[in-house]
Design brief:
The protein has 471 residues and is α/β, with parallel strands linked by helices. It folds into two domains: 271 residues, Rossmann fold, CATH 3.40.50; 180 residues, Four-carbon acid sugar kinase, nucleotide binding domain (Molybdenum Cofactor Biosythetic Enzyme, Chain A). The protein has 16 helices and 19 strands. Strand 8 and strand 9 form a beta hairpin. The protein is globular.
Length: 471
């Protein structure tokens, strides 16, 4: 296998590829989705996976009756927020297995067939293959293979010649050379997706055994070649997908649907862009301030728990370019059982005072990343810190004019525990890759626009732009 390349100029590499497929295929995909009658169910390991869709429900719980209601509904897809990326592997596996069993029963009751997306991080962090195996074993389908497709245009993630890249300005950096690959819980070395599969499976699946849908397959062969390759895969294969644009994804999905129409079945492990195309959802413009419908007055709340360097840059820009008030949570105090409660109370009082004064305020964790001795210990620290952020939010009496949460685990916990959201509607995006939910009637703030801001998305001024939309 060729040596893994280093950084490349984005335009230079993309312009060197064969031309895209000449026609858009989304209308054909939409017809196939309607004709197939299979609901798309997206298990989202953090809430940022809604960053490409609109008009789609999100559930934060999954009893059989709730799943049956969604399977019987009119939407082509729905999301289940599992937040499994914050859990240790055994709990993530148990959660996926529970959802698989409940989905199977809900489908039996409603007579509805479904396809499943295990949506995860476009920078390759998450419980792979463990939670995918648990999900597959809990479903009655014998899958022909797993589809690995981390392409995510809105976040600048491209897969070319099997190398997964992260765009940093005008430069494409192999994912294994970015800060994301150094993640304390989900770190990795390989940028070549075939090698990445081998690395993550501990050699159980060799790089040579992984099937690749290449750029040439997609751009020169089209849906017919994609379908032919998928029809020819051996049972229990892993298939990685190359894509450098949404047209590539449309070609792949139409070929995938053709193979599935012939009886093949695949479990999808993908980033967010795949979901929109596979569900046949048309793109829409970014949300406007009028569509967000914030209250006429009052202060807004920004909650930041993400530690990736991109978030740090965005917070600094927010401090430098706006008059937003700052409330820092001292993480060392949160990890000290004797000081945690006092630190939470102090922060809640400060945030409440700012909101009562009609001031925008950012609640953020101290920026020194504290990790554990292993992946499980690091995840446990993250859960304790996130629980503390939630405790501050729950301690606030004044309804914010808007609420923005930065970071996947943070935004999930704030939604489910801070705002008591059981079901929300994805309104669309406020910035590319930044979804907005409308909180359901059962939530603490019914109808509120809740901005779910991924830690690894957006340029240096993205937080400034989002907050500025509310005046």
């Amino acid at each position: 296998m060729p040596h893994q390349p280093g950084k490349s100029g984005k335009n230079e590499l993309i312009n060197s590829l064969p031309p895209e497929w000449p026609t858009g295929l989304l209308p054909q995909i939409q017809r196939q989705v309607r004709a197939g009658g299979r609901k798309l169910v997206v298990l989202d390991d953090d809430p940022t996976g809604t960053q490409t869709v609109h008009g789609i429900p999100v559930l934060t719980h999954w009893p059989v009756e709730a799943l049956a209601a969604e399977l019987a509904g009119d939407s082509p897809a729905f999301y289940l927020l599992t937040n499994s990326r914050s859990l240790p592997l055994p709990k993530a596996q148990a959660l996926n297995a529970e959802i698989g069993r409940n989905l199977t029963e809900a489908a039996r009751q409603t007579g509805t067939e479904f396809a499943v997306v295990s949506r995860s991080d476009s920078t390759l962090r998450g419980h792979f293959p463990g939670e995918v195996e648990a999900l597959a074993h809990s479903l009655p389908t014998r899958f022909d293979g797993w589809i690995i497709n981390p392409f995510f245009l809105e976040g600048g993630r491209y897969t070319i010649n099997d190398i997964h890249y992260v765009a940093e300005g005008d430069v494409l950096t192999p994912a294994g050379e970015t800060e994301f690959a150094k993640d304390a819980a989900f770190g990795y070395r390989a940028s070549n997706l075939r090698r990445w599969v081998e690395e993550k499976t501990g050699g159980k699946i060799s790089a040579g055994a992984v099937v690749s849908i290449t750029i040439d397959d997609v751009r020169r062969g089209g849906p017919a070649r994609v379908a032919k390759k998928l029809l020819g895969v051996e049972k229990d294969s892993v298939v990685v997908v190359n894509a450098a644009g949404y047209r590539d994804l449309e070609v792949f999905v139409l070929g995938l649907l053709a193979a599935e129409a012939e009886g093949r079945r695949f479990l999808y492990r993908t980033a967010a862009s795949f979901v929109r195309v596979r569900a046949g959802i048309s793109p829409r413009p970014l949300l406007t301030t009028q569509e967000l419908a914030p209250a006429a007055s009052g202060g807004g709340l920004v909650v930041v728990g993400s530690y990736v360097p991109r978030t740090g840059t965005q917070i600094n820009a927010l401090f430098e370019q706006t008059d937003i008030q700052r409330v820092e949570l001292n993480v060392k105090a949160l990890l000290d059982s004797g000081r945690q409660a006092e630190e939470i109370e102090r922060a809640a009082e400060q945030v409440e005072s700012n909101l009562q004064a009609g001031q925008n305020v950012v609640l953020y964790t101290s920026r020194q990343l504290i990790t554990g001795t292993d992946a499980a210990a690091s995840l446990a620290i993250g859960r304790r810190v996130s629980a503390s952020l939630v405790a501050v939010v729950r301690g606030i009496a004044t309804r914010p004019r808007f609420l923005l949460a930065k970071g996947g685990i943070t935004s999930s916990d704030v939604a489910t525990q801070g705002l008591n959201i059981k079901k929300a509607l994805v309104m669309g995006q406020i910035l590319p890759g930044v979804p907005v939910w409308q909180a359901g009637p059962e939530s603490r703030y019914p109808g509120m626009a809740y901005i779910v801001f991924p830690g690894n998305v957006g340029g240096p001024n993205a937080l400034v732009e989002a907050v500025s939309m509310f005046g």
